[in-house]
Amino acid sequence: MTKRPYAANITRNPPETHRAAGDADAAHFEQDIDMSEQDREQGKTRRAAVMGDAFVERAMRDLDGFSRPLQNWLNEHAWGSTWQRGGIDLKTRSLCTCAMLAALGRSTELKGHVRGALNNGASLVEIREVLLHSALYAGAPAAVEAFRSAREVIAELGLSLPDDEA
Fold first, then answer.
1. How large is the average pLDDT for residues 11-18?
2. Domains in the chain, please, with CATH?
3. Which of these, 64, 103, 109, 125, is most buried using a 10 Å CB contact count?
4. 45 near 84, Cβ under 8 Å?
């Protein structure tokens, strides 16, 4: 993945605005747009690999001028940048995401990421232990809701629950 410098002072005007003004940054702007489109497409591919094609198709279906910017931003910045990084494998990244969503009480997103964690090779025991660990830091109510959400996904997928006394 090509790194690009962060430029806080870039204004997102159409390239013709830059050309009309004779701005020397027009080429840089066009390169930035190309990089964004590349990140967005790579992000969409990673998002589908983690969350599943059906999830991405639902997210991208019937987009309008109101919701399209959010989905494009997610594909570019979350999935096209952070989820592309090395340092930790996708399973670990998915389990971290599940823990954070559990702590935040974001049940709908957690369900999608439980599926993603399974797609990335996490076991039901690993998911259970991450959610149980979140109770220590996020509190019992958040963990109860997270377990409820995870069990819904497990039931939808027809998976057998771990049957140990851990």
1. 44
2. 23-84 (no CATH), 90-156 (1.20.1290.10)
3. 103
4. no
